[in-house]
Design a protein that fits this description.
alpha/beta, Nucleotidyltransferase, domain 5, 5-stranded mixed beta sheet, 5 helices, 5 strands
């Protein structure tokens, strides 16, 4: 199965695409959609939507997995994140790709085995699980790959139980 993981952010939205049978995983692509923080917010949302559409068109994933909104201390930041997630969910729905959402706790437990793992620990485990020669430099891309890996594990388990 081909899974696109997304780590939403208004300035940096991470993405990671994997191919998986539930046990063996292979990274196909990863990176960050960066927006100019000086642009109007609606232009930044359009940029994220356009890049995400390109990824969906180029890679044809069967599934997309996105982190759920966490509770932010800053309400303005949480609202911006919610807007980005809304755009991401809309683009995924438009593409007809099956969507799954996971809490940050679920993603970290799946990747590291500990729900309060640090970003660097997630990066190291993603590198290990995917058998990469080097650590994924971007925390956002590593988080997105961790989301995709979380879905691969959940989907494989669901298929076994069915």
């Amino acid at each position: 199965m081909r899974i696109l993981g997304i780590d939403c952010g208004s300035a940096r939205t991470g993405y990671g695409l994997i191919e998986s049978d539930g046990r063996d995983h292979r990274m196909l692509a990863s990176g960050v959609i960066c927006t100019n923080t000086r642009w109007p917010f609606e232009k930044r949302l359009a940029e994220i939507a356009g890049e995400l559409r390109r990824l969906l068109r180029d890679y044809h994933p069967e599934f997309a997995a996105v982190e759920e909104v966490f509770h932010a201390v800053n309400a303005k930041t949480a609202l911006k994140l919610a807007h980005v997630r809304g755009v991401v969910l809309l683009v995924i729905a438009e593409a007809g790709v099956e969507l799954a959402e996971y809490s940050p706790l679920e993603v970290k437990i799946n990747a590291v085995g500990y729900g309060r793992a640090e970003k660097h620990q997630v990066q190291l485990m993603v590198q290990s699980i995917l058998g990469l020669p080097e650590i994924i430099a971007s925390e956002d891309a590593a988080d997105a790959l961790a989301v995709a890996l979380c879905h691969a594990t959940h989907e494989a388990t669901s298929r076994k139980l069915a």
